[in-house]
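I have a small job for you when you get a moment. Can you supply me with one protein entry, sequence and fold together? It will help me judge whether the discrete encoding reads sensibly. Write everything out right here, beneath this request:
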Amino acid sequence: SVASSVVVSAATAFLDASQPQLLPSTTMEDDEPTPDSYIKLISADSTTFYLQRRIALQVDTIKAMLDGNFRESEEGVIRFPDIGDSALEKVVRYLHYKDKWSNSSARIPEFDIAPEEALELLVAASYLNC
């Protein structure tokens, strides 16, 4: 429902309000994500993220799932049973970072990754091919 979704302002992603909020957020009122503009990503911890479809299609694995004859292409929902919520959140943040800075001529800021996150993110990035 519209009232149960929240917009994550820092990463322009969405989280399900029934899960712990991991990022600063504001409540959505009139702007429910649609299957055409967003896809739903579900972590191993059942945290739900909504990601803009155009950004998601930049990831080879997600693109294959959405373009192929898979359940994900019909539902617009992708479950990641091996990627925890913190890693999936960081992946979503990275995809927004990459989208924002990939064609920039300005100095590109570093994308910070804490050493304790590195291994889990490496596994997620390898699986997603991003």
In short: The CA atoms of residues 16 and 25 lie 11 Å apart.
